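Wed. Picked up where I left off yesterday with FtsX-like permease family protein. The coffee machine is broken again, so keeping this brief.
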Amino acid sequence: MSLSVAVAIARRDLRGGIRGFAVFLACLVLGVAAIAAVGTVRSAIADALSREGAALLGGDAQMSFTYRMASAEERAFMAARAAEVSEIVDFRSMAVAGAGADAVRALTQVKAVDGAYPLLGTVLLEPSMDIQSALAPQDGVPGGVMEGVLADRLGLAVGDRFRLGLAEFRLSARIVRAPDGAMGGFLLGPQTIVLAASLEGSGLLEPGSLYDSRYRLLLSPGADLDALEREAEAAFRDKGMRWQDARRGAPGAERFVDRMGSFLVLVGLAGLAVGGVGIASAVRSYLEGKTRTIAALKAVGAEGRTILLVYLLQVGAVAVLGIVLGVGLGILLPVLAAPLAAGLLPIPVAVVPAVRPALEAAVYGFLTVALFTLWPLARVREVRAAALFRDLGTARRRWPGWRMGAILATLSAAFVLVATFLAAVPQLALGTLGGIAGALVLLAASAWVLRRIARAFSHRANGRPGLRLALAAIAGPREEASSVVLALGLGLSVLAAVGQIDANLRAAIDRDLPDVAPSFFFVDIQGDQIDDFRDRLAGFAGVHKVDSAPMLRGVVTRIDGQDARAVAGDHWVLRGDRGLTYADRPPADTRLVAGSWWPEGYAGPPQMSFAAEEAAELGLTLGDRVTVNVLGREIEATITSLREVDFSTAGIGFVMVLNPAALAGAPHSFISTVYADAPVEAEVLRTAAEAWPNITAIPVREVVGRVAGILDAIARATAIAAGVTLLTGAVVLIGAAAAGQRARTYEAAILKVLGATRWEILVSFALRSALMGAAAGLVAIGFGAAAGFAVMHFVMDGTFRFEPVSAIAIVAGGILATLAAGLAFALPSLRARPARVLRGAE
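Structure written out below (tokens, as returned):
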């Protein structure tokens, strides 16, 4: 038969509607919609970041330095190439409102700007005014603006006064939105903007103080950013200069959006895999209902390939419909929700339909349909014409043949390649797909084991007819157990993994960290303040320990005389500047794992002690030479020892420690950690702030709260994606229960004739559902624990602890879900009269 004949048969067969494809459509629409929605939002934010790159950055390009202002040479370089330059100093400080015992203090990120700020964009203030007017002195008091959350915390109204260090300011407005507000990444405190000139005499920008200086450049139209970047990097990178331009105005936000978007797409793929199980089950059920039609076609001379083409065309047509509906829904929902979320975003984002996310979702949908339908479709070729007279089913052979196996293997490889290519983190994509495949194999194996166990014990359940009937049904030839365990188990596995990861992250923050973490980090302690600071706070009642260390920043530029990045790659130690210190003796609790410390008073060639784990990652060993640029001065030190550094304690830890003579004369400040009982923390903070206004206190509990808030947002987004997966699993459950209703009705009729009561039949149906749900839940617990361990150990570099509460909830949820679906379709079967059912089956 020709293609036209197959098309005609397929069209006529679908005239009765697509009711048999309801579960197919629901699963496909949900999975495709989830991926399309995530892709649409990610695309909109990425477009906004690209479009607003210059405004987000505050200029066409930016040169940044740590611990210092630009040198005369660097300023001349910028002036010669830019039409206008704006200088900004960024640092942390304590904002203080009130005086004495009534004073209120809060950590703030201060942006000290000049008269040219902002070069691009507009700072939106409340009440509305120009930023320079807001910062101008009034009655001799300079103005300042701050975020509303900080003003509320300090109890400030517009016109009230506050202090930064020794300088007093007047709150002239609240910040609604700053054009460069999205580029700062994670901030320890809300933002305050003042004029840099107003900070003179504040004690906050002293030699050695920890700050970043940023120079925004406004370039002439058509400037070659690539050439300018190469020129600046060649001249100043080894002096600690960091380059950024409008092509990636907010790299931190862009990186987060890419990674979070990729992760949510991968969670969506898990939902699509669950939907794939439902799609396969729906196609199998549909074809079973078409057995007599297929047999009739065979009887009139239709070839197996023609019949296969007929149902391929039907499935393809329904798949196109489902994908179109899924893509449309996935685009429509973010577009409708965009106005509600507009106020939550730091930049204007226009959520509009985009081609790439739509195509990405469509490709995933087509590949999923092909992977999960070709196998059951291949079995239609085995239906014999004799099925017109006897119920032979669609097929009995499981393996579809080597040719179809090769096609399925090719499609699987294409799926992996597409997901890896589209993901921002290919390793994450491979790991996720591997996890999904592993979970499917494990769930299929568990379904097979469940059926074997049911078969073995069904003959031993004498005296318990309900249990015996349930076990016999699970062990029977129908594939209900496989469909239920696969679909529900994969959905619960995703939920279990999310639950274990979320519980472990919260435990690390809420339980583990506070037990060992200091109460405060104090920074910008000057050399003439450190002794008094240590003595006064160490003698404070309720303070257990005060640690301190000199603090400098440096950029690793070379390793053994060669470019550091060329030698060790893009390791985090080599990205920008890193903290370093000096010490005559090994710090307390230091454990050397190789080499030896320099003698006290050592004044020879510079020596360095390097963190052992980071050294191994960089390929460094004893005797290697590391060049560090500190405040424009290059210091080449030889690694003479390696030591363990535990950054998880939140205490003072440095990757690099040098001998004191190597850093002699370099201006620097000190940092300190203070461990105190919670009841005295407020008094410690008040004492330190009144005695040393220039010192900045960073409350660890407050930082932990901000991190927890970010984790909450990530957990909510992940839970929504996982919820779609679970919803898809529920649809598959309902589909499996609906598909088996006819068989359960016939089964109930036979059992009634044999003397079984309705209660015994209902118990057997309930036990059958509960056992399948329990099997899916138990596998989900194992998979969730394995996924949680992998993420915590390999990604977060943390400790994994199995969380039993969510695990118990997973098993209970699996049992309840299968019970609800099974019993909802079992009750009508119990009401059917045996005579009518059996007479209709003759």
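Quick read: Residues 700-739 form the longest helix (40 residues).
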